[in-house]
Amino acid sequence: MATNARAAICRGNSEPFAIEDVELAELRPDELRVKIIACGVCHTDMAVRDQQLPVPMPVVLGHEGAGIVEEVGSDVTSAKVGDRVVMSFNSCGHCPSCDIDAPTYCYNFFPENWSGGRPDGSATLLQKGEKMNANFFGQSSFATHAIAHDRNVVKVPDSAKDLPLERLAPIGCGLMTGAGAVLNSMKVRKGLPIAVVGVGTVGMAAIMAAKIAGADPIIAVDMNDSRLELAKELGATHAFNAKDDAMGQIKELVPQGLGYAFDTTGINKVIEDLFGLLAPMGIVGMVGASDPSHMLKFNEAEFMGGGRRVMGILGGDSDLKHFLPKLIEYHLNGQFPFDKLIGYFPFEEINEAIESSENGTVVKPVLRIAEEA
Ligand SMILES: NC(=O)c1ccc[n+]([C@@H]2O[C@H](COP(=O)([O-])OP(=O)(O)OC[C@H]3O[C@@H](n4cnc5c(N)ncnc54)[C@H](O)[C@@H]3O)[C@@H](O)[C@H]2O)c1
Ligand SMILES: [Zn+2]
Ligand SMILES: [Zn+2]
Q: 291 pLDDT band (50/70/90 cuts)?
């Protein structure tokens, strides 16, 4: 039987998100229905709204959902009815990347996450009986209820039973990406210098992870001074404003070069400048969304001669089922205090929440969709 729900519908950037009645489709054997308690707002939602990503419209977005499982299909093993879960991106489970537990590079990422329905084209969500585009990142959590999948749901460990779901909601995207880039992708070594350019959610998570890894110094760069202050609270040893020749200041601070440079801005000039600051064997990790027409240029001899690397990173190379519980443990023992980034909004204020992210007043807006108790 279909389940009635309310969902925020995105029809592009010329009109605000509108919360309307929808119906969830019946579950397939590998699917779960989750009552959403909270959902983070991320830049990727806005990139879709602005049609920078090929997701069909109108659509229900939201991909940092946390909630309580209400119903499970017969093949589901990741959670049972009543479990508290967080959701992340979906993957197919049977491609060369999924085979080696690298699901962020799933060969079927687009159909599983961005096609507006299930990979076979069927709808997970309907409005007045017609297909509504959804299944965004295998969830579409700007809604009271969502259909998720066995592969993109992680049960909150019992050790975190006292942590509210509204705090855990954003862990499955930007936070995981920044922390994973440092700990999984670049495998930052103790004692080596790192610079993080752009300290929004992803950059702040990278700073906290760099501290966990023991990097030194940890340099934050942004144009927003209050974000730079917060970055220092979270572990940055130095903070430079991009308007004040940050690259020159980094060069002066670490004349031997950077072990790691992490870019979240997606600006090609920034990435090229960072490449020029690398020590031998240094790595530039890049995650920022960029203009699809942009190209990067760097010196061939420096690239080869120093064994330098330029690394594209998706989702922080996170194998969800292991990495999300690990991040929750870091949070519980005080090493990953991401709650300092969060500002809460009621679901009805979704447009205000998006605005707060775009004007930089809130690093990570989280929508409160239902009471947990
Ligand atoms: N690759 C992935 O898996 C992945 C996952 C999540 C997000 N993203 C992308 O990563 C990027 C960062 O996400 P976020 O949520 O942290 O965004 P954000 O907007 O919160 O953070 C970006 C920060 O960069 C700063 N900035 C902009 N231009 C700058 C410049 N020239 N120099 C220094 N700082 C500058 C901004 O002030 C801001 O604080 C986005 O493009 C997002 O779409 C990628
Ligand atoms: Zn995201
Ligand atoms: Zn796959």
A: confident
